[in-house]
Amino acid sequence: MGNNFEVLLEEWRRFEFPNIIERYIHPQPSSHITAIVGPRRAGKTFLLYLIARDLLRKYPRDNVIYVNFDDERIRKEPFENLLEAIHKVFNPKGKIFLLLDEIQNVSNWSGWLGTLHNMQKYSIFVAGSSSKLLSMEVATSLRGRYISYTLLPFSFREFLKMKNIEERRTYIYEDVGLIKRLLDEYIEYGSFPEVIKEQSRIQKKRVLKTIFETIFFKDVVERFRIRNFDIARDILEFLLVNYSNKITINKLYNFLSSIGRKVSKKTLWKYIYYFQQAFAVMLLEPLTSKKKRLLLPRKIYSIDTGISRLLDIEPSRGRLIENIVFLELVRRKERELFDIYYFYGRDYEVDFVVTEGRRVIRLIQVCYNIEDFEVARREIRGLMKAAKQLECNNLEIITWDHEDIWNINGLKVKLTPLWKWLLKPL
Predict the structure, then answer these.
(1) Three-state DSSP state, 363
(2) What are 34's strand-pairing partners?
(3) Which pTM does this prediction carry?
């Protein structure tokens, strides 16, 4: 009958694509290996399906090959059997497009990818579970031969598509109440596809708990061989409920000491690195010189507000929407290749500074209730000081539902509701 790859490839020949939602990234064929990294369950497999579907509109079926290496039937098959099976099942002529899912299950996967890349007859896309195919593994194993895309859970625009909400602007603007109710759901339960599909609140929470436990045990404890996982869990939970806050090792060290946990500051840095590699949290650095950057605190953001809400008994609406804005900026960064920082003055702060090279192109504050006079004065003061110091006049405040343009000291400050900001390009 031949090797088991032949069976899978015959199934692929007859594969019917499910309904696939367009994502915020859409990698194109490249002379480099294309790696898709990100948290588990963010939709990497469906993104490979989407790429394959679009390739098949331009190329013959024989030239577009998808293989999921998580299939038990090929767990013990040598990788070279795949190449043999391709030419038995298909008759490819010219460039062959390989879409390899769960590639980390292949023994010596990086070596095989390097060999295929050097042959110059394959265009290669790879994705895999973040427990083994993390950004650092890709960078180390494929250095100089790959480009990588980060796939986060669903954007609000993608969330609405999954809810079958039309994207026609007239429809959205006519039913702002519905959009804001859905935005409440998006903030409370997050944006993992599996969670969005669930209808009941209880089931959404069950799925969120499963995702959190899997990330912690598979992508952190097992991947990095952590023995004292109770301390690691305390640290991760502390970080996830301090979303949108500045974090320092001293603050974290003091918290652990207060609950009787003894751990060195060096170990704390190591754990934070692990959590970043597993895409459980993301850190934002201040805009300053590299030397000063080491001395200033980072801001911590959760990979998903639903997971943080699950752990946080006193959630902050303002910090939650700031976390939402950060994740959206990270998504847009994948397309537009800008950089993101926060700005930390002596007596003020700006939530997000968007730069291109050394040029500051946008300053963004996030404020839930801008109608509070003291809050508004604080946010405006920070923007005005940073605008002068950073020589930037593109100023915006993202609010819950207030829209306006304020003219202050000769500068225009645009106030944009969160839902509207999430549904438009930067």
Answers:
(1) strand
(2) 125, 147
(3) 0.93
Q: How many residues does the chain have?
A: 426
Token digits of residue 366: 């996030």
| pLDDT tens, residue order, the chain (426 aa) | 458 999 999 999 999 999 999 999 999 999 999 999 899 999 999 999 999 999 999 999 999 999 999 899 998 889 999 999 999 999 999 999 999 998 888 888 888 888 899 899 999 999 987 655 665 666 677 777 888 899 999 999 999 999 998 665 555 667 888 999 999 999 999 999 999 999 999 999 999 999 999 999 999 999 899 988 899 999 999 999 999 999 999 989 998 999 998 899 999 999 999 999 899 999 999 998 777 777 789 999 999 999 999 999 889 999 999 999 999 999 999 988 899 999 988 889 999 999 999 999 999 999 998 988 888 899 999 999 999 999 999 999 999 999 999 999 899 999 999 999 999 876
User: What are the tokens at 200?
Assistant: 């009941």
The whole-angstrom separation of Cα 67 and Cα 70 is 9
- Structural domains in the chain, CATH included, are 4-150 (3.40.50.300), 154-285+303-314 (no CATH)
